[in-house]
């Protein structure tokens, strides 16, 4: 059974949260039309200062709605768009995808997963203590856990709306695990 889009969000300005919309349009090679992070080269506000000409591997931010339920159990009320994601999904194991996985969203859009979102300290400005719940270090192994979604580039554009199906297509093996981008 395919996953589903539960919300779509975009913001024309740099802000931590992004307002929900009835639909967004993905543009091949750029990102979400009208979103501040759309572009061929890096649009992340901090990284633009020292890597302005690198390819934008963070054109679209996707987050799994299941994280919100997990955070609610720990006392954090978070909803779609509030952590800056463009597409909120349900029923897709985003964090378990390999690098290069394709997500076919709705009728036309296709995004390629490039890596994990690297959560920043602004998350604690939004909700004090939240960073510790979306980013953790396993004391035994020293492995980092990033739970704040994945980043992708747009391979084929199209409209995306809540209720659209999300179908996963894995790349040929061997698979590379996601790293932060």
UniProtKB/TrEMBL annotation:
The organism of origin for this protein: Streptomyces daqingensis
Positions of the MOSC domain: 18-169
Q: Which domain of life is it from?
A: Bacteria
InterPro entries assigned to the protein according to its UniProt record, in alphabetical order: MoCF_Sase_C, MOSC_domain, Pyrv_Knase-like_insert_dom_sf
This protein is called what?
MOSC domain-containing protein
The cross-references to PROSITE patterns, in alphabetical order and at most eight, read:
MOSC
């Amino acid at each position: 059974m395919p996953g589903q889009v539960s919300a779509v969000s975009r913001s024309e300005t740099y802000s931590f949260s992004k307002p929900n919309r009835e639909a967004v349009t993905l543009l091949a090679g750029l990102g979400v039309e009208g979103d501040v992070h759309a572009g061929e080269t890096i649009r992340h506000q901090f990284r633009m200062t020292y890597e302005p000409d690198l390819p934008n591997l963070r054109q679209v931010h996707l987050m799994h709605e299941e994280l919100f339920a997990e955070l609610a159990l720990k006392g954090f009320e978070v909803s779609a768009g509030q952590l800056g994601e463009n597409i909120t999904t349900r029923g897709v194991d985003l964090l378990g995808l390999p690098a290069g996985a394709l997500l076919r969203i709705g009728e036309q859009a296709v995004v390629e997963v490039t890596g994990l979102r690297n959560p920043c300290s602004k998350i604690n400005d939004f909700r004090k203590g939240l960073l510790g719940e979306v980013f953790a270090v396993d004391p035994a192994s020293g492995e980092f856990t990033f739970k704040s979604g994945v980043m992708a580039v747009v391979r084929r554009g199209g409209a995306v709306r809540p209720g659209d199906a999300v179908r996963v297509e894995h790349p040929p093996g061997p698979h590379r695990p996601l790293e932060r981008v």
